[in-house]
Amino acid sequence: MTRKEITGKRLFVLDTNVLMHDPTAIFRFQEHDIYLPMMVLEELDAGKKGLSEVARNVRQVSRFLDDLMRNASKEEIDCGLALPAFSQAVGAHGRLFFQTRRMPLELHEALPGHRPDNNILGTVIALQQEHRDVTVILVSKDINLRIKAAVLGVHAEDYYNDQVLDDVNLLYSGAAELPANFWDTHSKNMASWQESGRTFYKITGPDVAHWQPNQFLFSADDSGFEAIVRALDGESATIELVRDFRTARHAVWGVNARNREQNFALNLLMDSEVDFVTLLGTAGAGKTLLTLAAGLEQVLDEKRYSEIIMTRVTVPVGEDIGFLPGTEEEKMTPWMGALMDNLEVLTKSDVGGDWGRAATNDLLRSRIKIRSLNFMRGRTFLNKFIILDEAQNLTAKQMKTLITRAGPGSKVVCLGNVAQIDTPYLTETTSGLTYVVDRFKAWGYSGHITLMRGERSRLADYASEAL
Predict the structure, then answer these.
(1) The CATH number of the domain where 43 resides is what?
(2) 0.90 exceeded by the pTM?
(3) Residue/partner pairs of 44-51 with CB below 8 Å, 24 or more apart
(4) Which of 43, 301, 392, 436 meets the CB 3.0–4.6 Å disulfide criterion with 16?
């Protein structure tokens, strides 16, 4: 690599964990050059074995590198391999350089060079000294390595390309409050009609451009106006008044909505035209209870779906409890405490006594199947009500794998709380749940709502705020 070839560009040195996290990272830096130390290749070789998501990513990185190096001579590799643009929208591309010679590792005496992280850090320092007119940047998902780099005066950054949003507070909430003067500015040429017992409005005005399909609209005044966007056409939109599931007459499997957001959630869950629903909310907001109630109503009473499929990520909060004997469903049972707790609420009835409750529980077990994420690849679920619990612990790729399991007639509901992520390498802005909420918000057959308030108990509400 010559100084002339990288002048005027930034040179990004990639840490191993970046490639393990996103195999396409080498194509994501547009016109800038990329440098891979030999230690990174060694760590990739060590991490290629196994069936984990990381091992699959490592093998994919190796395939990408093999394709780039195919038919390349030693001279071409020394001068850098041309990187193709990741998308046609970005025409510029940089070059990929490998460490082809031993470099002097001038590290501080407190940082021994034989450790992989320190070896990579030493390589970056050597590149800085060799190419003083080039900005050399270390890119790593490892916070501690970035801290050590900053201490030694090396510019280091996190890998941001996998972030869906800059701030999780910008995430689409699924509901919007109408301004106080909304009807003054949008009532001109407004049309209203009823169809199949439902009330519709066609509205034209400037605020319509900011709406999304199946977004909820509400007024904060005493009018109690609540509607859902059904169709968008430029500056005009068709909205429908929502059903009020807060009344006993509209109870879903014996469950009523306790607040506005829960009412919106039940409207999405009970809507046969909405194939994909995401519910975000704090602990005790009612995500699982509402979803199970809607699922049981549509499986047992309305016969809309054949059964409920429920799964979740098995990430322990404390120490792992180790090997679990039994079938797939028996192994998943300890992780399904939330399911069991909510089923107790939904089946609590004095009708029929103990025999009646036992019969109800047997019926529910026959219609609710617990499945592990490990065996989802290659499956297709037909006419099923699929619940993905604790979805905040899934990556975007895992989320894609699971959602694409849905066959004709199936509905997928993703539940989670991005403030309770247990997976080490995911954050609120990189979670698969955040990813699908942002990507599906403009699709006419999906809906999202963020549940704002917990409904467990005054103790749980205070603990969520004070602890």
Answers:
(1) 3.40.50.1010
(2) no
(3) 44/16, 44/19, 44/20, 47/16, 47/20
(4) 43
